[in-house]
Structure formats: structure tokens, C-alpha cells
Amino acid sequence: MLRAGPFSDERIVRLANRRFVPFFFDLDSGGAVGDKDARAFVVKARKNLGGGSVSTPPILFMNADGEVLGEADNYATADQVYAAMKKVLEKHPDFAKESDAETKLTGLGRAELLVDLGDLGGARTVLEKETGAKAAYALGRVLRMQKEFDAADKAFEKVDDKDLADDVVVEKAYRHWAAGDFEKLRDALKDVPKESNRWTEARYYGGLALYHLGEKEKACDFWKETIKASKQDAWVYRTDWAYCGVKDKAGGSFSSDKKGSSCLGRIGYMGAKNPDLKKK
Fold first, then answer.
1. What share of the chain in percent tops pLDDT 70?
2. What are 205-213's contacts with CB under 8 Å, separation 24+?
3. Are residues 174 and 168 in contact, defined by beta-carbon separation less than 8 angstroms?
4. Is the predicted pLDDT of residue 268 greater than 70, yes or no?
5. Are residues 230 and 266 both part of a single domain?
6. Are residues 122 and 204 in the same domain?
7. What is the CATH number of the domain that holds 112?
8. What's the domain count of the chain?
């Protein structure tokens, strides 16, 4: 659930990579990702997690000494997890300090750091002083994240770098998703090539366009084809979550383990259904 939900959220991935050391494992040391040392470390702080039968554990934010600095429920939304991460950094500013290398960043590097830290306004200020295709693209992306789509499109018009062409296509498509214009969303993303680093993202939203246009089975076939043709990444996990959400006819909190319910062979996704399946 976490990799498909909160940890497929761009804000969380960026902040986690800058200020945290993400680590997951099975509480059962004999599990697929069992780690007895990690288990002992966590159980020392939370003894209730050491029993033979444990309810789904929360996300714990800990320091190297084993002190729990904060937490978020395992079923938390991306917004709730992101807020918990920001709260930990606010309460413990030593972990939010810039490294020596980060203090020396300027221009695009400084802007990228600020985006990673969630300071979109600061990144925008930096990028508005920069020139060139990469700066125009970075500014357009920040504006898109701020949902200023008209201004974003003006920035993207200045991107004359062919290597960024697919990125611009995907970024510009977000306005159609935000507006709930699913026909335009489908058409905008249909030609993103498989070799693009944005292909799985484009396919995820292409499937959502089909789903919201009432073509649910076609969307599932589209997603299934995407998952089979891709290496696992955040968008592939999120795609499988959406696929399961459609295939789980009962609509329960845990998808069926019957064959075909998950393209990745998962038992299911606990918690709420993929929010992207809700009507906009």
C-alpha cells in the first residue's frame, strides 16, 4: 500500500530522498524482506510490534538512536504522510540543515533542492532569473505543481530541447487531469514513446482517462499491458493499485487474493481505494 500510495507521491519521494533514509522490512524475520536487526531496532522502541500477531504497523520516523520522532498511520493519505514528515523536520531542525554541498548550489541546482524540500515559491523565484531550455522547463514544472497552468504553458513554449519533448507533453497533460477533461488527457498522452522516462506515468494517466470515460475494462487491459511491459517503479505500483481497485468488485479494504486481482501478484492493498478512481 505504501509504495503504491504515499510513496508514489512526488512530494514524498523528493523529501524522503533529501532528508530521510527510507527503509522497509517485514516484521516477521522470515518474510520476503525480513531483517532481524531492523525488527529488533523497532521492537525496542515499540514493544507492541514484537508479538506473534501484530496489526498493520504505522510508518515510524526514527533517529539512529532508536527514538521515535513521529509517525503516520499505515493507511494514511499522501497528504497526511507528507504533513508528518514536515512536522518531524520542524520539531528537529538539525535534520533539516543543508549539507555543505547543498549550501553551494546555485541556479537550477538550488531550484531543484527547493522543490525537493517543498519550497515551490522559492524555487520559482530562482528559476525566473535563469535562462535556457532546462530552466524554462523547470519553471514550467514548478508552475504546474502550483496549478498555474496558463503560466506553465508559457514557460514550456520556451523549451526547445528535443530531449525534454516527452517531459513537456506529460507536464502539459496535467491541466486536463485537473480539469477533468479526460478526452483531452487521453489524446495528449497517447504518443508518449515507451523509451521515454515518463512512459509509465503517461500510461497510468492514460488508463485513468479511459476509466473516467466509462471504459473500465479497456482501462484495466491498458494498465495490465503497461505493468507487464515495465520494470517496477512508483507509477507501476500505483497502476497496480488502480487496477485492483477496479477489479475488486466488492469494494472492500483489502483486495481479493484470487488469481488476476493484481498484475504484480500482490495479495491486495489495505486501506482506501486509489483516490484517482473517484469522480473529479
1. 94
2. 205/173, 205/177, 207/239, 207/242, 208/177, 208/182, 208/242, 208/276, 208/277, 209/182, 209/183, 209/185, 210/182, 210/186, 211/242, 211/246, 211/277, 212/180, 212/182, 212/279, 212/280, 213/182, 213/183, 213/186
3. no
4. no
5. yes
6. no
7. 1.25.40
8. 3
User: Model pTM?
Assistant: 0.90
* Residue 1 counted as domain residue: no
- 77 and 23 share a domain? yes
Residues 156 and 222 reside in one and the same domain? no
Residues above pLDDT 90, as percent of the chain: 74
In this structure, are 65 and 141 located in the same domain? Answer: no
Q: Is the pLDDT of residue 76 over 70?
A: yes
Where does a domain end: 96, 113, 136?
A: 96
Domain hosting residue 141, numbered range: 98-160
Span of 30-39, 107-116, 153-162 with lowest mean pLDDT: 30-39
Q: In the listed set 70, 96, 122, which residue is the last one of a domain according to the structure?
A: 96
| Per-residue pLDDT at 30 exceeds 80 | no
Do 28 and 22 meet the contact criterion of CB atoms below 8 Å apart?
Answer: no
Residues 279 and 256 in one domain: yes
pLDDT at residue 253, as a whole number: 45
pLDDT for 125-161, tens place per residue?
A: 999 999 999 999 999 999 999 999 999 999 999 999 9
